[in-house]
Automatic annotation (TrEMBL):
CC per GO annotation: large ribosomal subunit
Keywords carried by this UniProt record: Ribonucleoprotein, Ribosomal protein
Gene Ontology BP annotations: translation
InterPro entries reported in the protein's UniProt record: Ribosomal_uL1, Ribosomal_uL1-like, Ribosomal_uL1/biogenesis, Ribosomal_uL1_3-a/b-sand
The family this protein is said to belong to: Belongs to the universal ribosomal protein uL1 family.
Taxonomic source organism: Rhipicephalus zambeziensis
Protein known as: Large ribosomal subunit protein uL1
Length: 217
């Protein structure tokens, strides 16, 4: 368990969050977000930090992955019924920002063939980075389903010039243990990005999409 965060308090907060969601019977699966308030940071002078980290469990119940592929990977994706786009679509995204935004918003994560990933990042990388969806590399010989699982369990911290950030850590159909493991991994990852560790954290809350925030630190 991450230091300074009580295991018992975290479990109690997660239980309260899950119980509240179960009582309301939403017609969709709520995601669970970790919200962090920061301190002792000058957002106008300090360079915003960012990083990509793995957690143990998939963070969204219907996580949609798209392969940005060369011809071979596009053929493989189609055979496995996985969404894919080719370089012609990427070039169109470069020309029309509305198309780029629509495609990037449609999917939760992306994989890109290593043979074209440099071209992809040069053309649409800045927009994908702003939306926290830079593609993971997909090499020939990689198991496509294993790489999809990697995408589903990869989280990105993208700090902007504000003293607050949030990241999805799971959903309400997960167990308390599963959410606890993801939250713990997320906190440990966050600490590696902060210059003063816990001295840069004012508070941490967990919140479902429609629920009340639960403070764990």
């Amino acid at each position: 368990m991450s230091t300074k965060v009580s295991r018992q308090l975290m479990r109690e907060c997660i239980d309260a969050l899950l119980n509240e969601s179960a009582r309301r019977h939403r017609k969709f699966t709520e995601t669970v977000e970790m919200q962090i308030a920061l301190k002792n940071i000058n957002p106008h002078k300090d360079k915003p930090a960012s990083g990509t980290f793995r957690v143990k469990h998939s963070m969204k119940p219907n996580f949609k992955v798209c392969v940005i592929g060369d011809p071979e990977h596009c053929d493989e994706a189609k055979a496995e019924k996985v969404s894919c786009i080719d370089m012609d679509t990427v070039r169109l995204m470069r020309k029309k920002s509305s198309v780029a935004k629509r495609i990037i918003k449609k999917f939760d994560g992306f994989l890109a063939s290593t043979t074209i990933i440099k071209d992809v990042t040069n053309l649409v990388g800045p927009m994908m980075k702003r939306m926290g969806k830079l593609p993971l590399p997909l090499a020939h010989g990689d198991n496509l389903h294993e790489k999809i699982h990697e995408a589903k369990t990869t989280m990105t911290f993208q700090m902007r010039r504000v003293l607050w950030l949030a990241v999805c850590v799971g959903h309400v159909k997960m167990t308390t243990d599963m959410l606890s493991e993801n939250v713990d991994a997320a906190i440990r990852s966050l600490l590696t990005l902060l210059k003063k560790d816990w001295q840069n954290i004012r508070s941490i809350h967990l919140k479902s999409t429609m629920g009340r925030p639960q403070r764990i630190y």
